[in-house]
């Protein structure tokens, strides 16, 4: 079989997960790497054996050899690059969030329909083995009707700065960066119910905390102590038309003792925890029981989830199958995220 020629656009931190996983795939050739920063593109290209290096994504997309692209740029350009790629006849794997606004999301959906090409959204949490296992238990009815979910991802000191802290390039702070993973994961596990309304709050109280000393944390490449236009903390209550609800809170910065992460879903026959480590609680013979599935990784395992995501993308391209995380789900997520920002700005619940 002819190898699939792929290109990665945006050669920053997350591109390594894409490039490593493509490199491991026997049916893929890493053909090109593109970044606005030529040095970075050249370094990544050399590391993963790409034959072509581009600084302009337009020039890359004009290259007829390329079958598919991963879009790993700032959120600002996800829509523009993905639409151009689809129109140039390439299949697209775009990092989360799908884009910055609902309008952009709908244009991306139109481009998928128009081009007949595939777009997979990089909702990597869906591709984790534990998530797929629990999803199959759920589909077999083990948890009954899931009516409540609760997700939290709280960083004590974790505003990465750079483009992440620039609302123009990111679209927002922890809500659009981390909240998108939490909300999508719960929504997917709940069976993608139709959203009725959202009520959210965002806070900008602590800033980027550039003054903090004696404690290291991840900083984006173009970190600037003076640039921060995003929220520190967001919370939201999401109501679904089937009566189910989801509560979520996420932060870049909060006066909490240590980082916390939890994802929990509750049904009328049983409940389960995904983060920080999987467990199930149910009833058996009039007794409450807790079950700990014996699996390779009790918590989220990034490397294998990214490998599964890339394997799935390649397989969908080869077979024409619809991806597990299609553009429609990216659109729905943008409606929820933008609805939460709108609700927070207006100080009231927003009906979608
Ligand atoms: N799935 C995950 O868990 C996960 C984790 C981290 C980041 N991400 C997503 O991946 C994307 C990139 O994040 P990152 O952490 O790698 O950021 P990064 O800053 O490390 O890298 C982004 C790169 O994109 C390049 N770039 C920006 N605009 C470009 C353009 N128009 N053309 C070519 N190159 C361009 C930048 O020069 C930079 O090198 C974001 O959308 C982010 O939300 C996803």
From TrEMBL:
What GO MF annotations does this protein's record show? nucleotide binding
Q: Which InterPro entries match?
A: Gfo/Idh/MocA-like_OxRdtase_C (IPR004104), Gfo/Idh/MocA-like_OxRdtase_N (IPR000683), Gfo/Idh/MocA_Oxidoreductase (IPR052515), NAD(P)-bd_dom_sf (IPR036291)
One Pfam family in the UniProt entry: GFO_IDH_MocA_C
PANTHER family registered for this protein in UniProt? D-GLUCOSIDE 3-DEHYDROGENASE, UDP-N-ACETYL-2-AMINO-2-DEOXY-D-GLUCURONATE OXIDASE
Q: What family name appears in the similarity comment? A: Belongs to the Gfo/Idh/MocA family.
**Name of the molecule in the record:** Oxidoreductase
User: Lineage of this protein's species?
Assistant: Bacteria, Bacillati, Bacillota, Bacilli, Bacillales
